[in-house]
Amino acid sequence: MKNIKVGVIGVGYLGKFHAQKYAAMENVELVGVADVVLSAARQVAAACGTRAFADYRQLLPLVDAVSVVVPTPMHHPVATECFAAGVDVMLEKPMTVTLEEADDLIKKAENGRRILQVGHLERFNPAIVAMQDYLTCPLFIESQRVHSFKPRGADVDVVLDLMIHDIDIILHVVPSPLQSIDTIGASVVTGGTDVATAHLIFENGCAANVTVSRVAHDNVRSLRIYQPGSSLTVNYATKEITVIERQTGLTPEGYPREEIIHFCFTEKDALQVELADFIANVRARRMPMVSGREGRQALEVALRIIRQIREHHDRYKETLCVG
């Protein structure tokens, strides 16, 4: 089997993990890593047994595919250069800053017959994968993603940093167009939104409550889905899923009978699976499960939520005592 030659553009906190995963894959050659901070590129390259580049454009003629793990404002220009060079792209989330940029990348990928995959990592969480077998007709969804403050990523709105993961999952599991969004959020520590709650209503009647925070004192990443006769609970962090299925009749104590099924997938690595899927898509020339179009859908909802939060802020900034 022919080796797929890959590179990583941007080797900060997340990019270095991309490089490590590629370096360990069979039938994949990590040709090089690129970063504007050459010392960072050299450090990751040395650890992964590859070459370091300060200018990613020098890497493009040498590879079949790349992971683009640069700051979001650079996603569009970097991916554009990659497509122009005939290189397939694994693009970290959020896909772009604007919908216009997203549409342009989708068009460029399709016209050039290039693979464009967007890095919504939770799609590859093994608990989410296992959950698909138990989905019937979601009626109500609760999603919570909160953690303690970390300076890394604080320059990005919490909706684009965290909530977009849950938006993508919910859009994926609800087989209906989105009808309405009602959102509220607040800035607590940074200049942007740090906590937010969105209420989504779909045309088929399904509703979802999505809560995120990056200023909590605990860490919770969970998803609950209620559907006729059953409920599903996913713990993203521990990669566990609990399925509760209602049975006929009552227990001797008068409670509804239930069958509880529990799975844990701690041995599986979501990033490893995601990047292996990208390589398989490059090799087979097939449409990714999370293509540019899915990335755009999540981005569109996220931007609507951000706009609502800003409108609420502007309307009540006098009474809320915020600047």
CATH class of the largest domain: Alpha Beta
Mean pLDDT figure:
94
Give the C-alpha Rg: 21 Å
Question: Number of helix segments?
Answer: 8
- Indicate the CATH architecture of the largest domain: 2-Layer Sandwich
Structural class: alpha/beta
Number of strands: 14
Q: What is the domain total for the residues?
A: 2
- Report the CATH topology name of the largest domain: Dihydrodipicolinate Reductase, domain 2
Low-confidence stretches: none
Helix content: 25-40%
Globally, the shape reads globular
Give a quick account of the main beta sheet: strands, pairing sense, barrel closure: 8 strands, mixed
CATH level 4 superfamily of the largest domain: Dihydrodipicolinate Reductase, domain 2
- Strand proportion, as a percent range, falls in 25-35%
Report on this structure.
The protein has 323 residues and is α/β, with parallel strands linked by helices. The chain folds into 2 domains: 4-114, Rossmann fold (3-Layer(aba) Sandwich); 123-268 and 302-316, Dihydrodipicolinate Reductase, domain 2. It has 8 helices and 14 strands. α1 (15-24) crosses α7, α3 packs parallel to α4 (99-111) and α6 crosses α8. The longest helix is centred in the last third of the chain and has 25 residues, at 292-316. It starts with a strand and ends in a 7-residue tail after the last helix. The model has no long low-confidence stretch (mean pLDDT 94).
